[in-house]
Amino acid sequence: MGTGIGGAFVERGQIMLGSHNEAGHIGHMVCTDAVGVPCSCGATGHLEPIAAGPGIIERYIELGGDATLEDGTPIDGAEIDRRAARSDKNAIAAEARSGHAIGEVLGSVCNMLDPDCVILSGSVAQCGDAWRYAMQRGWHEAVMMPVSDTPIVSGELGGNAPLIGAAENAVNSAYAELS
Fold first, then answer.
1. How many CB atoms lie within 10 A of CB 139?
2. 4 is a domain residue
3. Looking at the chain, which terminus has fewer C-beta neighbours within 10 angstroms, N or C?
4. What is the DSSP string of 158-175?
5. Total domains in the fold of the chain
6. Residue 114 falls inside a structural domain
7. Residue 133 forms beta bridges with which residues?
8. pLDDT tens per residue across span 95-147
């Protein structure tokens, strides 16, 4: 989760691709927080436009937050997170919408797939308490009791995860068709 929101479902060491090689587009799942919000894919109501980094920044500015830093450079997600930690209400609200939406979608995914765990990585997953609290709230509102204890953990590869995954795939393809 960063500039966009992607995902993968790994079953017994294989990445499941689906019939159209499109499995894992979790950013294009519908969520209640995004009703009516247009997505880059042409649909509306998807997770990515409100929960990825650009959506957090856009929401922060919509709520009245500064679009630029004192030196004139555009505000970024890391600065919004710092402001949320300092109790900036606009920063907290922007991160909370993102976190709640992600939690809601992850709860729905777990209801359907019942995974061993959920691994979060990327810059958005590094947000602080406002984001995490809202993500947990969205999770608990959506997830069914039998899977509610599914661990949500932080990825260990940080920002290098996409690169490492691409390199691993080039060397040892682990893709499988989802039937």
1. 23
2. no
3. C
4. GGGHHHHHHHHHHHS--E
5. 1
6. yes
7. none
8. 999 999 999 999 999 999 999 999 999 899 999 999 999 999 999 999 999 99
For Cα atoms 41, 126, 165, give the angle at the middle one, nearest 5 degrees.
65
Is a pLDDT exceeding 50 seen at residue 179?
Answer: no
The DSSP call for residue 124 is G
What's the pTM? Answer: 0.89
Domain span at 28: 10-176
Smallest CA-to-CA distance from 78 within 27, 28, 131, 135 is with 131
Asked whether residue 2 is assigned to any structural domain, the reply reads no
State the Cα–Cα distance between residues 56 and 59, nearest whole angstrom.
5
Tell me the pLDDT tens digit for each residue of 29-72.
Answer: 999 999 999 999 999 999 999 999 999 999 999 999 999 999 99
Domain harbouring 119, CATH code:
3.30.420.40
Structure tokens, 122: 């990327």
**C-alpha of 174 from chain center:** 23
How far, in Å, CA of 19 to CA of 7, rounded? 16
Name the token pair of 80. 């919004």
Kindly report, residue by residue over 22-41, the tens digit of the pLDDT: 888 999 999 999 999 999 99
Pairing between strand 175-176 and 14-16?
Answer: parallel
**Residues near 158 by beta carbon (within 8 Å), at least 6 away in sequence:** 121
